From TrEMBL:
The gene is mca. HAMAP family: Mca. Belongs to the MshB deacetylase family. Mca subfamily. Binds 1 zinc ion per subunit. Monomer. Its EC number is 3.5.1.115. Keywords: Hydrolase, Metal-binding, Zinc. This is Mycothiol S-conjugate amidase. Its cofactor is Zn(2+). One of its GO terms (molecular function) is hydrolase activity, acting on carbon-nitrogen (but not peptide) bonds, in linear amides.
């Protein structure tokens, strides 16, 4: 495929995907990043934390020494980045863990979600000024999932999008650079869950999505707006390889792999995004994250 250029400057287009933990880049928007890589866009995944407090979710693994979790996850991340074809950079913060219980326990000292906003954003501003992305993706204000690191990932991304181009802010962290568009990833929307569930039931297979749909409806979580739909079923195999690369974190018999890929490609061949901010004119709905930039 031809190299895609930003005609205004003749530079290659650049996409930065900001994520909370290693594995999030493989479960949210992964096929989209693989597609843009294949089309000649430079893609950098930025991972805020080392995922040190992740639970082992693959029953094929026994309990792992928490001391080694960071190291294991770095190796898994490198394999996932290779599967997607993206570059990847760590911001170096420590995973806050997912607090569980009633009442919720306090967050551990020094974790990402407790770092003051400006301090937490500084390395991302530096990364934006070094990589100079035209488009940044992150999570919606709820985090898309109630993990304190996902909410914090949203906050630092919004702050970096606002500040990276301003020479008065975050001085000493590189030449200012103004990214043009900011998007929120959509993971499993209710519409996507329902489509996959119905396809599985119709095919006479067991669906893991029924209870999920019920609890989502019961909790009355408002659905986010879809502004941008990216066709990417050709890159589902790359996404699946990236998911499997996070071997301790992803159950190969779990819901990610419950739907036969041919059925998925026919029912839901896309990934969805919500345009949060744009500094270029664009017309919604879009089918390209670089609409208005090219
Ligand atoms: Zn995460």
């Amino acid at each position: 495929m031809p190299e895609q250029q930003n005609h205004a400057t003749d530079e290659p287009l650049r996409l930065m995907a900001v994520h909370a933990h290693p594995d999030d880049e493989s479960s949210k928007g992964a096929a989209t990043t693989a597609r843009y890589v294949a089309e000649g866009v430079e893609v950098l995944v930025v991972t805020c934390t080392g995922g040190e407090r992740g639970d082992v979710l693959n029953p094929q693994y026994g309990p792992l020494d928490p001391e080694h979790m960071g190291e294991i996850r770095r190796a898994e991340m490198a394999a996932a980045a290779a599967a997607l074809g993206v570059r990847q950079q760590w911001l170096g913060f420590v995973d806050s863990g997912l607090p569980e219980g009633d009442p919720l326990p306090p967050l551990p000292d020094g974790c990402f979600a407790l770092v003051p906003l400006e301090e937490a954003t500084a390395p991302l501003v530096e990364a934006v000024r070094a990589f100079r992305p035209h488009v940044i993706t992150t999570y919606d204000p709820s985090g898309g999932y109630p993990h304190p690191d996902h909410v914090m990932c949203h906050r630092v991304s919004v702050e970096a999008f606002a500040a990276a181009g301003d020479p008065q802010r975050y001085p000493g962290l590189g030449e200012p650079w103004t990214p043009l568009k900011l998007y929120y990833n959509h993971g499993f929307s209710l519409a996507r869950l329902r489509a996959l569930h119905e396809a599985l039931v119709e095919a006479g297979r067991e669906s893991p999505f029924g209870d999920w749909i019920e609890s989502r409806v019961a909790r009355e979580i408002p659905e986010r707006q879809v502004t941008t739909t990216i066709r990417c079923e050709q890159y589902f195999p790359a996404r699946d390889d990236a998911l499997r690369a996070h071997a301790t974190q992803i159950d190969p018999d779990g819901f990610f792999f419950a739907i036969p890929r041919s059925v998925e490609a026919a029912q839901w061949p896309t990934e969805e995004f919500e345009l949060a901010e744009s500094r270029v004119p664009t017309t919604l709905p879009e089918d390209d994250l670089f609409a208005g930039v090219r």
